[in-house]
Amino acid sequence: MATSTNDLNKLTVAQLKAICKEKGISGYSKLNKPALLQRIVDYNKSTGSGTASATRAIEPSQLSNASGLDPAHTTAPHSRTIDRAPIPGELPVLSQPPPPERRKKRPITSNTEISAPQSKKSKTTTNAHGTTEAKALTPQLKSQNVMGPPSVRCTESSLAPPGSLNTPNSSSIPRIPTTGRESTVRKATGPLPTSLSKNSTKSALPSSEPPQAQAKRMVSEARKASRTQGSVVQPLEIPHSGKFPAVSGSITPSRAALAIVQDRSQAVAPQSTEQVSAVKTLPPARKFKPLVSCKAAVPSLLSPQQPRPSVSSLNISSAEELFLFASTPYPIPACPRITLPPSLSQRKRVHIWALFLSLVPSSSLHTCTLVSKMFRYAIYLSALAILQRDFPGKRLEHVLSKYAREAKMTSFWPYLRERRRERSRWEDAYRESFLPAFFEGAQPISERMWTSPEDDRQTGVALRFVMTRLWFAISIGKLQPKWGIVTSAETVVDDIWMVKVQYSTSPGHEETFYILEPTCEVIGRPSHSSGSNPESGGLPVRADWSAYIDRFRSGDGANGGNSILSRLRWENYEEYDGGISKLWLNRIESEGEVGRAKRLVAQRYVLACVVANSISGQWMSSTQMAQDFAGLSAGGTGGPRHGQTQVNLYLPLQVSLCSFHPPLTPSVRLHPRSHHHVESVHFTTPGSSRQSIHRAVAVVQTPAREYFVLRDNGMQIGCEEEGVGEVWMQALGCAASGVKKWNGQ
Fold it and tell me: Which residues contact residue 124 at a Cβ distance below 8 angstroms, ignoring those fewer than 6 apart?
């Protein structure tokens, strides 16, 4: 026992674990060397077997390598050298052997009997030099019944090594014997490469290298060996994994397999050489060069879904740059609560200090916040006092209604800054327009109107009303010495506003007008006006307009559509919608804000081109307006009948068709001239130059000609033949083509 224990002490931990695995000892994976020795000794005592028989299953190459001996001089424990079967999972080129039950039923055949069907399944791979790799052995190694020639054929019982006949699966594992044929092959091909023999010896020892890595390394070594030795396949040393008893020797392919490999290598090598030469003769591929546009990139406001950006949308950022007086809604910012309130004794004086601090300039308020908590709190409350003093009206009341319970604890500085910014924008827009040149520094609207107290569109409507009055004054050639000041602008219905004008010649008296919001054209004056300008004649509201306004004020016509454009009638319903080309309306939908601005200009132009009697003056039916426009003698005129005052803005069809559909009831009728139907609207000059025209001017294309109009009210200021009128060129500071003149031009 001492001798056997000394023999076991010479082994490594890995070798001891291999012995434990061979004997079927469990629980040895995490034990150290003394514990492993004790387990093996106890197992030998319990079974009664000696250590010598237990260590017989250890591969000689392992013992010799551990002691420093050459593996070539180690002797096998049996007189016959037998190669073991391939272990599953170690080599990717070897398939898993069939179960033992199936192996027992298969008859043992010779190599000549199985070479024909196996040769169909064999797959040989060639490298760039046409050499055959070691994968050609795969069909021969897949079958476990491959044996030597009949002269060396043996039974399964003779292949089993000593000491392993009692194992349950040992009888079903065939072994390939090594005969004198191995020495003949070694003499013909020469000894194995040194690297392959060393690595095969080292691989027999237990290693921490994964099985897949071992398999890849062995296959690469086999390929190197096959390249150095030609097409002759060298026998491979298969490492021992410990699942079966270790034996010496190597797997040697049969003569039939070697013949098949040689034939395949000779047939495949020329083909691969031709393919390589064909690839080498191909011309080198040219590097892809992207197309480079010579034109400079132009920024566009269109979304990625719009494939063709419009030229007129270049360098446009918002609606404020498309019109002189664009009425854009302003968002109401959130107002936070004031933090760090003062003590209870000082809160009584906070509101008084807020009134005092509301008179302090904003630049000095930051310093005042550092005085105390009471001053800081009072400064935040002073924003409410400033709003009530400078920006009174319905808009402020609407905002305060949202903070009714917390108004004394809320900071309204964000809303105050927004209202100040809005007023500053309107003042800048007025100074940049052409209106100040006519008023010589006088303000055309009151100080309160700059703040838009009742509606965020008030200032824009008031300034556009002043522009329309100026257009009529220039058209008739009579400029008034005193224009008056617009003091109020309130909406009556959606498209009808009431504007109040105060004259300096009659202080305390105001004159009220009803105007159309799209064109700011006067449609009449209410009868309850407190005063009138001595120079202006009577302009009462017609009965049809008066009834239209009263009905919408009472709410009876709220469901009938508030827009004045819904009352419009026009010619050629198939091609025009509201007097505007349907094809052009579909085309500008992809232009975003620019397209909406063009459509608004087109609608204003259509309302500005209706027959004069459609809006003001003596009431006329649609038939009478058509006949008067055509130069025919109109019949008797009469006013609208009371009680039948349905508003109807009529753009008549052909004059001959009007006689078949005479109006049954007097109503408001807009009768535009057919050649003023809109085909398109442009903000740039025609031709290839595409220069942006003045911000106050637009080009309207009609079926007859082009017209230059004002964007903010749709009134005409020029035509295609003459260009912009000379008076308007001086007023606007533009050329005949509508392009703005710069300093020095």
Answer: 132, 133, 135, 136, 261, 264, 265, 268
CA–CA distance, 81 with 74 (Å, rounded to integer): 12
| Interval 705-712 mean pLDDT | 95
The structure tokens listed for 278 are 């064909």
Please give the radius of gyration of the chain, using alpha carbons only, rounded to the nearest integer. 53
Determine the longest span between alpha carbons in the chain, in angstroms.
146
- Residues listed for the chain: 745
- Work out the end-to-end distance of the chain between its first and last CA atoms, rounded to an integer number of angstroms: 121
What is the residue-averaged pLDDT of the chain?
Answer: 70
Q: In what order do the strands lie in the sheet with 706-710?
A: 680-682, 697-701, 706-710, 716-719, 723-724
pLDDT digits (tens, 9 = 90+) for 226-237: 555 544 444 444
Alpha helices per DSSP H over 433-532: 436-439, 458-476
Count how many Cα atoms sit within 13 Å of the Cα of residue 51 in the half-sphere of its side chain.
18
* Amino acid symbol at 7: D
Buried b (16+ CB within 10 A) or exposed e, 211-229: beebbeebbebbbebbeeb
Instruction: For residues 385 and 383, give the distance between their C-alpha atoms in angstroms, rounded to a whole number.
Output: 5
Percentage of residues in the chain with pLDDT exceeding 90?
29
Q: Cα torsion at 56, 59, 65, 69 (round to 10°)? A: 60
- Beta-carbon contacts of 591 under 8 Å, excluding residues fewer than 6 positions away, are 302, 306, 310, 312, 313, 598
> Could you tell me where the DSSP H helices lie in 180-254?
180-189, 194-203, 211-228
* Residue 287 neighbours by CB under 8 Å, 6+ apart: none
As a whole number of angstroms, the distance between CA 487 and CA 489 comes to: 7
Question: Distance of CA 702 to CAs 576, 631, 655, 671, 720, Å?
Answer: 12, 22, 20, 16, 11
DSSP letter string, 682-714 = ESB-SSSS--B--TTEEEEE-SS-EEEEETTT-
CA distance 54 to 127: 46
Q: Which of the residue ranges 35-44, 173-182, 695-704 has the most confident prediction, judged by mean pLDDT?
A: 695-704
Q: pTM score, two decimals? A: 0.56
Please say whether the beta carbons of 733 and 695 come within 8 A: no
